[in-house]
């Protein structure tokens, strides 16, 4: 497999800019001093804010700046902001609950909703106001992007640290702005998952969907069925060592995600995509024979045994144990590509399993094939079809939406982050076609599925399947720059949607990714700054 060497392009760019600096020095002797750095315009943010009114003087962060953040969760958001700003500014930036001016994070009643905020910037300070700590956190992400990209570096930088004057009022279009990571086809360590969480947070993503089981690996410890993790998790695509999360490790992922205001959505894919479970326990198989572990990338060959009672004991134990570890509201039961489960069995299975999820206090989510069974009241379906999907399939999902099933939109030929950008992309697959940056961004979730009422659309999610993805560098070159576009589709008002404007805002993120050590696809569709 081709590995993506993250450091090479960065070093090349660094050398390039050193040469440019040297050249500029040679030709600028006696010339006028360089113009003062202008602060980033208030609307040069991804996702685009709902409204941005420039005006007044900029605020300058200095060695004397305090971060004022009250107590509790607001205080923790203040500490998070300080952790980002301190290394690059070199300032102390004490987090306090008193004083005036500086950077203030303030909880207050107002028209902010659960995640919105207002950011006011002027000579004496920047104030972020929100009803909920999540709103303060999202406002902090906006503030980050208003500062120069170098603020993301982990060593002291020259500044100046200016925030343009004016007011941003911002609130999300959709409550569901998700990213899915398939930790089954290849296993990812807790630290790799945390690194992705931090990247998702920068773009106001609020759901982390973990695809915890599939044919190639079972990735979470289940006390009542221990072989699932120890045997079913012992390999991965290509035959590597695989791995699994202990319960404490999974809880640590949940805790870390929560500290970044992401809700973890666990998925156990059933009744297909279950070879790792079937290999771990012979009794789960209709013929009582455990198949070997699987390390290829075919789909659709495995099925739980719908006619055996032990299957439902297994499902009950697994859902109960994972639900106990998961404070989030949702449990994803998969349900896609059950090609080895007769349709009548599929319907029967979903009728048995959905009440188990409810029994343990969670809301059912399934891939949209669930709409071919009887979705439980309040269930959500995750649509992963493509433009070329049959009209009948789209109509079935739209009908379920009219009957009350909420939809999460993940059209594979738009937002599957594992699709190659073009024929030269070293990683990824192409069964849904090539998905360059504009294609990924240029669609409207509110009007996407004919016949589905806009009110049924809960939001968008960008899945990253990992048949070819093995490490953080791989994740990043597939997610960037497409992920921020999906985040914008989920957050920004439809009225701000404009590829020509978006690509300029997106291009300005490139230096930020360089500063963060994120290797990204330098799409020719995006006018990246030189350097
Ligand atoms: C899927 O891509 N099978 C949900």
In short:
This protein is 34% helix and 16% strand. The protein has 531 residues and is an alpha/beta fold. The longest helix has 21 residues, at 7-27.
Total helical segments: 16
The CATH superfamily label of the largest domain reads: Glycosidases
Question: Which percent range fits the helix content?
Answer: 25-40%
Class inferred from helices and paired strands: alpha/beta
Low-confidence stretches: 1-32
Cα distance, first to last residue? 30 Å
Going by CATH, the architecture of the largest domain would be: Alpha-Beta Barrel
Relative strand content: 15-25%
User: Can you give the mean pLDDT?
Assistant: 94
Task: Note the topology.
Elements: H1 7-27, E1 51-54, E2 59-61, E3 67-68, H2 72-89, E4 95-96, E5 102-107, E6 117-122, E7 125-130, H3 133-146, E8 161-163, E9 166-170, E10 176-182, H4 190-202, E11 207-211, E12 213-214, E13 217-218, H5 227-230, H6 247-259, E14 263-270, H7 275-280, H8 309-325, E15 330-334, H9 343-359, E16 363-367, E17 380-383, H10 391-402, E18 406-409, H11 412-415, H12 437-441, E19 457-464, H13 472-479, H14 482-491, H15 499-507, H16 510-516
Helix pairs in contact: 2-3, 4-6, 8-9
This protein binds acetamide (ACM).
Acetamide binds at residues 336-337, 367, 384.
């Amino acid at each position: 497999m081709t590995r993506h060497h993250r450091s090479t392009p960065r070093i090349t760019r660094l050398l390039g800019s050193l040469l440019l600096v040297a050249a500029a020095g040679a030709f600028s002797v006696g010339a006028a001093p360089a113009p003062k750095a202008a602060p980033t315009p208030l609307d040069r943010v991804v996702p685009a804010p709902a409204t941005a009114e420039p005006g007044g003087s900029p605020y300058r962060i200095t060695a004397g700046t305090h971060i004022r953040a009250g107590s509790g969760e607001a205080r923790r958001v203040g500490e998070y902001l300080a952790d980002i700003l301190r290394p690059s500014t070199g300032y102390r930036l004490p987090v306090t609950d008193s004083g005036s001016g500086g950077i203030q994070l303030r909880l207050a009643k107002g028209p902010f909703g659960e995640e919105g905020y207002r950011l006011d910037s002027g000579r004496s300070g920047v104030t972020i106001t929100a009803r909920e700590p999540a709103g303060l956190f999202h406002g902090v992400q906006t503030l980050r992007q208003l500062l120069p990209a170098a603020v993301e570096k982990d060593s002291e930088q020259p500044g100046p640290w200016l925030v343009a004057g004016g007011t941003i009022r911002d609130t999300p279009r959709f409550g569901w702005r998700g990213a899915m990571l398939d930790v089954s086809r290849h296993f990812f360590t807790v630290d790799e998952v945390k690194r992705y969480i931090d990247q998702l947070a920068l773009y106001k993503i609020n759901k982390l969907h973990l695809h915890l089981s599939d044919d190639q690996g079972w990735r979470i410890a289940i006390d009542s069925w221990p072989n699932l993790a120890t045997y079913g998790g012992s390999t991965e695509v290509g035959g590597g060592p695989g791995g699994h999360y202990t319960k404490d490790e999974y809880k640590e992922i949940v805790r870390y995600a929560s500290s970044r205001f992401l809700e973890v959505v666990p998925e156990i894919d059933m009744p297909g995509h279950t070879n790792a479970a079937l290999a771990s326990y012979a009794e789960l198989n209709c013929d009582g024979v455990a198949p070997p572990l699987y390390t290829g990338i075919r789909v659709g060959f495995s099925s739980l045994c719908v006619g055996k009672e032990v299957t439902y004991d297994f499902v009950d134990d697994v859902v109960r144990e994972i639900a106990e570890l998961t404070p989030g509201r949702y449990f994803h039961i998969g349900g896609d590509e059950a090609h080895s489960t007769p349709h009548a069995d599929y319907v029967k299975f979903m009728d048995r399993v959905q009440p188990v999820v409810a029994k343990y206090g969670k809301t059912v989510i399934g891939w949209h094939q669930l709409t071919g069974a009887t979705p439980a009241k309040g269930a959500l379906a995750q649509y992963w079809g493509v433009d070329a999907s049959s009209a009948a399939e789209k109509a079935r999902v739209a009908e379920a939406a009219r009957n009350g099933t909420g939809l999460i939109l993940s059209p594979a030929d738009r937002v599957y982050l594992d699709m190659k950008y073009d024929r030269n992309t070293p990683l990824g697959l192409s069964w849904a076609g090539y998905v360059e940056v504009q294609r990924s961004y240029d669609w409207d979730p509110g009007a996407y599925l004919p016949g589905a009422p806009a009110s049924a659309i809960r939001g968008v999610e960008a899945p990253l399947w990992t048949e070819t993805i093995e490490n953080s560098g791989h994740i990043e070159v597939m997610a960037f720059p497409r992920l921020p576009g999906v985040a914008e589709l989920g957050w920004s008002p439809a009225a701000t949607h404009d590829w020509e404007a978006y690509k300029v805002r997106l291009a300005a993120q490139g230096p930020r990714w360089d500063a963060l050590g994120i290797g990204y696809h330098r799409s020719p569709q995006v006018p990246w700054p030189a350097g």
